[in-house]
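Morning. Coffee machine broken again, so started the prediction first thing and wrote up yesterday's gels while waiting. Chain of 230 residues, entered below exactly as on the submission form.
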Amino acid sequence: MAQGGYAQFCPVAMAAEVLCSRWTIVLLRELIFGTTRFNDLRRGLPRMSPALLSQRLKELEAAGVIRRTAGPGNSSEYRLTAAGEELRPIVEAMGMWGQRWIDSDLSLQHLDAQLLMWDMRRRLNLDPMPRRRSVIQFQYPERPATERCWWLVVEPGEAVDLCSVDPGFDVDLYVSSDLRTMTAIWMGYDTLRGAIASERLTLIGDRELASNMQAWLGLSTLAPVERMAS
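Came back before lunch.
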């Protein structure tokens, strides 16, 4: 538990000492989404230092929220315990509250290309995609060079691969927009159709992939939440 805590026997205070240190809730978000490996957790938490991630994992393990098991090779995997699973509806409810009540303009001040692409990668719907390798390049022209281009590589029967370096395959579809527009579409603040109509997003390449983009892209799990804020 965190040092210098609340020093109260109240279960709310005791739970807060475990869960309310910085980055812990968003780390739980990644674990709840099914991420189990350290490097993959880092991809979902790109602004969290490896040292702090390691520390938070140790704290959650000590609190009985997660358990560490042996993974492939010499790697470790982190999985929720029964106590961790009980936090699933709590973390989901926090996300729903944030989507419903936090102003979208405030949310869109915190753009993060890696987080967006990682979230899109794990939500990709493979059913409407061609039964062959498909390579989709997302371009955010206004971003720094390290954040400008991303590739989703979809192979039938394989996990979707997200690359920030050209994987060397021919690109089937180019998707170009500013990062704010793509994030707004993903979160349900904007629509793909509206962004294309206003030329804030362009699609070049495979017609089938382009016409079915909304079907295979999907949306954030929180996009359907009815919004009260603007």
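Residues 100 and 227 are 4 Å apart (CA to CA). Going to sketch it on the whiteboard this afternoon.
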